[in-house]
């Protein structure tokens, strides 16, 4: 006997959409989230420009949390970490960090992505810890390592901020720069390698080799990391060569939803759609 019809791992937009859709179909679900509240990442996105009905992440997260609270068929387990997943022909079992387990007829895994670390950014090195863009200090000039899309969100959230951003980015990030290129506060530097040092007064300098071979020395008040994300895959999933977990590689009783599916699927709107579709797929599979 399983603990629930549908086990959902990860309470971001995809996981929450799966829980709401499952309830609308009469399915019981357990929604497991390691953080203390659902939609934690959404709460740090002040401006949304590609989600219907919401202009900011905090309002969206509050609405989702309220709807989950009204969804009687969903049991929300916050502060609970899943450390492994096993699927058989009969059911799915999730092993929890506290040594217990949950079972279900089907599972939706929506653990998303995590920010890339400096150690995972091979073209950049620093002799000091570099904080993420989301924690950017108040400064007149920033060196930004990477042109990932949170940079556009940062600029839209601070339209009157006079900060100057020198964005060092590898060739692989070129397609991401179109969103921020028109902003006069941004200087883009295609970068093959960068080594950052911090002076005793706290300012930062970077020895940069551009993709065209030019050697530059750049300075700023501080540096922030914006080098993309990495998949937060669970043990027991079947990853592709890039570490992401395409749905077609998984066991028939396990569906991957949201950002974990692909590096090119990282949008809030697509996450909610794939979460809802995952619950529908489980329903039609006859769990």
Automatic annotation (TrEMBL):
Pfam families: Pyr_redox_2. PANTHER family: ANAEROBIC GLYCEROL-3-PHOSPHATE DEHYDROGENASE SUBUNIT B (PTHR42949). Residues 5-118 form the FAD/NAD(P)-binding domain. This is Thioredoxin reductase (NADPH)/alkyl hydroperoxide reductase subunit F. Coiled coil: none annotated. Keywords: Oxidoreductase. The keyword Oxidoreductase applies. The keyword Oxidoreductase applies. InterPro entries: FAD/NAD-bd_sf, FAD/NAD-binding_dom, Metab_Enz_Cyan_OpOx_G3PDH. GO terms for molecular function: oxidoreductase activity.
């Amino acid at each position: 006997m399983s603990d629930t019809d549908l086990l959902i791992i990860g309470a971001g937009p995809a996981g929450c959409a799966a829980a709401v859709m499952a309830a609308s179909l009469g399915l019981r679900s357990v929604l497991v989230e390691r953080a203390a509240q659902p939609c934690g990442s959404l709460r740090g996105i002040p401006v949304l420009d590609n989600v219907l009905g919401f202009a900011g992440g905090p309002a969206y997260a509050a609405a989702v949390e309220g709807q989950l609270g009204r969804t009687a068929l969903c049991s929300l387990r916050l502060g609970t970490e899943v450390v492994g997943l096993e699927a058989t022909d009969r059911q799915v079992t999730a092993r929890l960090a506290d040594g217990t387990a949950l079972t279900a007829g089907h599972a939706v895994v929506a653990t998303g992505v995590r920010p890339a670390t400096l150690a995972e950014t091979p073209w950049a090195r620093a002799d000091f810890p570099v904080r993420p863009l989301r924690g950017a200090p108040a400064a007149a000039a920033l060196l930004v390592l990477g042109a990932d899309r949170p940079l556009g969100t940062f600029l839209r959230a601070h339209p009157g901020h006079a900060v100057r951003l020198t964005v060092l980015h590898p060739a692989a990030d070129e397609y991401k720069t179109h969103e921020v290129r028109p902003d006069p506060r941004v200087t883009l530097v295609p970068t093959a390698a960068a080594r950052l040092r911090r002076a005793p007064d706290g300012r930062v300098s970077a020895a940069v080799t551009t993709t065209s071979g030019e050697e530059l020395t750049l300075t700023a008040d501080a540096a922030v990391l914006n080098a993309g994300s990495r998949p937060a895959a669970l043990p027991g999933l079947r990853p592709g060569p890039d570490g992401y977990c395409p749905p077609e590689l998984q066991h028939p009783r396990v569906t991957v939803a949201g950002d974990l599916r692909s590096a090119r699927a990282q949008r809030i709107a697509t996450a909610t759609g794939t979460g809802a579709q995952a619950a529908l797929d489980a329903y039609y599979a006859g769990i």
